[in-house]
Model the fold of this input.
Amino acid sequence: MKVLVTGGSGFIGSRVTRHLLDAGAEVRVLDLVASMDERAEMITGDVTDSRAVDIAVRDVDAVCHQAAKVGLGVDFGDVGAYAAANDLGTAVLLGALWRRRFTGRLVLAGSMVVYGEARARCAEHGVVGPRPRLSADLDAGHFEPRCPVGACGRWVTWEPVDEDAPTDPRSVYAATKLHQEHLCTLYGRETGACVLTLRYHNVNGPGMPRDTPYAGVAAIFRSALALGRPPVVFEDGSQTRDFVHVDDVARANVLALTTPGVAPGVYNIASGEPHTVGEMAAALTAALNGRLTPIVSGHWRPGDVRHIVASAARAVVHLGFRAEVPFEQGMAEFATSPLRG
Done:
């Protein structure tokens, strides 16, 4: 099997490439940066460049679309960059596949950010989709979301989110990731191609990008520790996430590309074990002999969600995917592993 991996030199894409090669697949990488694995065929180019993409999609049996601009951005001024990289890049890829009459398997790197605050439980109204948090509440240190039903306004508690939960993107990045899903799903309907979207939860591991305005919280904490500074935790540190190791995510992609008879659709890719952001910061500092103590700042950022925890059941049933790297092991490795420039 020959697989095209767009963004195959990136943090996750490079791991997907390696796992595919180890499994015996032929891999063609489309990226602006040379592949770190010399076993892969390399095409240097941007996913928005139709000429490079037309070459990249020739004679491949499957496509793993990892190329994207990631992170929550700085502000709405980033909209053009995100739309170009994510929306336009996906459209160019799908256009090339359409011209080739491609009907193989297409796996899209999705994201849990499309859920927004996702799902919660109100003591009176049961399962609800929380409203965006109010600045007045956040300024006062009240970080939990409220019930959106009528004038209820009670504090709610998180519930695991499955793939059928309504989407509610709350950043430009999230909106573009959802649009990628829509475009790929439409392609599958038009052509009969088997399209799978893997909604990654909080991916961590060696090779994450360094501290930039677009870096994830794990990379920001890790970069601070590398400089001898304590990680600064926003809010009260009780934001809940599902942290999944990059090698587990890569395995999920291989399963999505190779599992016979797999059903098209959306799959959460997560560990199934929730942890707080504060716990992650503590685990990273503990792995460095506890010389530093995380600082809980109370600061908050617009667009951040309080809790997003996955139900991983669908991936278990249909892909046979279960995360294998325990949280503590992954954080201990991540604490001392090199980051990308």
Notes: The mean pLDDT is 92. The longest strand covers residues 105-111.
